[in-house]
Amino acid sequence: MTTRRDLLKFSALAAAAATLPSFAFADEKAKPVGRAKKPLDILILGGTGFTGPFQVNYALARGHKVTLFNRGKKPSPEWPGEVEQLFGDRNTGDLKSLQGRKWDVCIDNPTSLPFWVRDAGKVLAGNVGHYLFISTISVYADGSKPGIDENAPVAIYKGKDAMAETQESLRADIENLYGPLKALSEAEAHKQFGKRVTVVRPGYIVGPRDETDRFTYWPHRVAQGGEMLVPGDGADPVQVIDGRDLGEWMIRLAEAGTIGTFNAVGPKTPMTMDEMLHACQKATGGKPTYTHVTPEFLDAQKVGELPIWVSRKSGEYAGYGAVSNARAIKAGLTYRPLETTVTDLMAWFRNRPAERQAKLNAGISREKEAELLKAWHAQRGA
Ligand SMILES: NC(=O)c1ccc[n+]([C@@H]2O[C@H](COP(=O)([O-])OP(=O)(O)OC[C@H]3O[C@@H](n4cnc5c(N)ncnc54)[C@H](OP(=O)(O)O)[C@@H]3O)[C@@H](O)[C@H]2O)c1
After folding, report:
1. Distance, CA 295 to ligand 1 centroid (Å)?
2. Nearest CA, atom 42, ligand 1
3. Does residue 236 contact residue 312 with C-beta atoms inside 8 Å?
4. Ligand 1 lining (C-beta closer than 6 Å)
5. CATH topology of domain 217-238+270-316+337-379
6. CATH architecture classification, 12-207+240-264
7. Topology alike, domains 12-207+240-264 and 217-238+270-316+337-379
8. Could you read off the pLDDT tens digit of each residue along the chain, which spans 382 residues?
């Protein structure tokens, strides 16, 4: 039986006051959060990866009871309060530990496969009052234009039977199918949980705990200084959301019982690539000189992806830097300043193992960058 109740120790920190704990970062030290009007029983499916811990911390600070469900493979952070831990495996449909239990709210974090939602529905529908599902802006069928709002059509899964096919292959080709499968998962959520469903569609989630390095590449590179390659003319819009802003807002959505579908992208007002780099510069103290290169040059040089950035001028993702966040802001999504995100991200990153810091998971190497800059200047006769 995989069911196990493992009540973690209740620390003095959480008992003392409704403040965000030391697990959090510079801007959050002893920041008063305030108790929620009504404490909720919250079940978080996942909870120990990137964004889950921010939900847990904030929920505890707000006075809610938290239960986590996962396989127990990822180490749990040291929680600042009592957290109930249940175990199971959604790949194999082992959700026994959830049976016969009731919660006010369920937040489903890691799910990209519709059968995971179906299985959750089988055991939880009727036993949770509100189901919040983390989806993605990748669900949209057409990412090429700015201003994508929540009513835009979603991508269609082209296979015959997503439930069976994804169960069999267990993500063999999930990368290409991420958007359509998230869209199917959203539909399954509505099927299983009826009207009490909230779908949150983030863009790039960034900040401390982000192991992808897609955003981290930029402040890390800015901090190093020297001549730095910047894709595009600097005016392309970019959007990111701090994992803490996302996690905390999801708890507030749960508290308010807010239903609906929301894009979760930031910042509040549009930000260009140059503005993003400026924020990185302010936060890290780096002083690079920027050399802007054209998308055509990058294509000709066969540079794959420079993370976070997309050219606003062409391509199937040209609208990805300008997705509408109006509905989410109306529903209470708030944003830390990007400088705060960068400061805390770099503090976290500099505590990662040396080998992890030496080779980022995204972006280009300094050698590749130097090569590209040389080719760019040679082409322009400089
Ligand atoms: N990163 C981005 O930029 C981005 C952008 C848009 C949308 N999203 C979406 O945002 C969500 C982010 O999730 P997160 O990683 O931050 O969530 P999280 O809840 O912090 O971490 C993932 C959790 O899922 C659990 N898990 C993994 N496989 C499992 C299984 N087979 N059965 C049961 N539990 C399992 C993990 O624990 P164990 O491994 O111990 O089981 C872990 O607790 C995802 O849905 C992602 O698609 C991300």
Report:
1. 33
2. 46
3. yes
4. 46-52, 70-74, 89-91, 109-112, 134, 136, 202, 204-205
5. UDP-galactose 4-epimerase; domain 1 (3.90.25)
6. 3-Layer(aba) Sandwich (3.40)
7. no
8. 222 222 222 222 233 334 455 455 666 655 678 999 999 999 999 999 999 999 999 999 999 999 999 999 999 999 999 999 999 999 999 999 999 999 999 999 999 999 999 999 999 999 999 999 999 999 999 999 999 999 999 999 988 888 888 887 655 566 678 999 999 999 999 999 999 999 999 999 999 999 999 999 999 999 999 999 999 999 999 999 999 999 999 999 999 999 999 999 999 999 999 999 999 999 999 999 999 999 999 999 999 879 999 999 999 999 999 999 999 999 999 999 999 999 999 999 999 999 999 999 999 999 999 999 999 999 988 6
- Report how far residue 331's alpha carbon sits from residue 201's, in angstroms, rounded to the nearest whole number: 14
Ligand 1 probe mutation, 51, 57, 79, most atoms within 8 A of CB:
51
Give the Cβ contact number of residue 287 at 10 Å.
10
Give the number of other Cβ atoms within 10 Å of residue 262's Cβ: 25
Give the Å distance between the CA of 288 and the centre of ligand 1: 35
Q: Indicate the domain borders of the chain.
A: 12-207+240-264, 217-238+270-316+337-379
Task: Specify the amino acid at residue 81.
Answer: G
Residue nearest (by alpha carbon) to ligand 1 atom 36: 46
Token pair, residue 5, equals: 């109740």
| Atom from ligand 1 closest to the CA of residue 182 | 47
Q: Write the burial class of residue 23 (CB in 10 Å: 0-12 exposed, 13-18 middle, 19+ buried).
A: middle
291-329: string of b/e by CB count within 10 Å (b at 16+)? ebbebebbeeeebeebbbbbbbeeeeebbbbbbbbebbb
Kindly give the distance from the C-alpha atom of residue 40 to the centroid of ligand 1, in angstroms, as a whole number: 22
> Other CB atoms closer than 10 Å to residue 282's CB: what's the count?
15
Name the residue with the closest Cα to ligand 1, atom 34: 70
